[in-house]
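Lab notes, practical 5.
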Amino acid sequence: MIEINEKEFSLQYLKYLSESSFIISGADEICKYLHNNYKIALLTNGISVVQRNRLNHSVIKEYIDYCIISEEAKYSKPDIGIFKYAEKITKHYDKEKMIIIGDSLTSDILGGINYGIDTCWYNSENKMNDTNIKPKFEINKLSEVLKLL
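Output from the prediction step:
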């Protein structure tokens, strides 16, 4: 039997996880355009040290105005608590001028619906939406975001 120190294993796992950063093709150009014309808040579920390190290692970090992480907010998407936390951090309260763009129907889109803002499902794999969660918009390529704004 192999002896494993669970705490050390967990720390090493989180370290390597936080060093990985995968960007969708074209995301840097879209984020740059959006950053020049809008404020961008990244809302993510996860562990702060992992998510912040991932963002700091990514090519889009300079385009993100706010990084809202569920561990810090004490709420995870789809709970509206993370959106209310984001309001406090960004000092932006006008829901008419907000949209959430995300790839998860059950966290991003449902969270946006629960909070009362426009939603856009990034459905890069053209999956069938057989849920009762209905986004206002749906895109298959990131470049389609530009047509919505």
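Observations recorded by the TA: The helical segments are 6-18, 27-37, 48-56, 70-73, 80-90, 105-115, 145-148. The mean pLDDT is 92.
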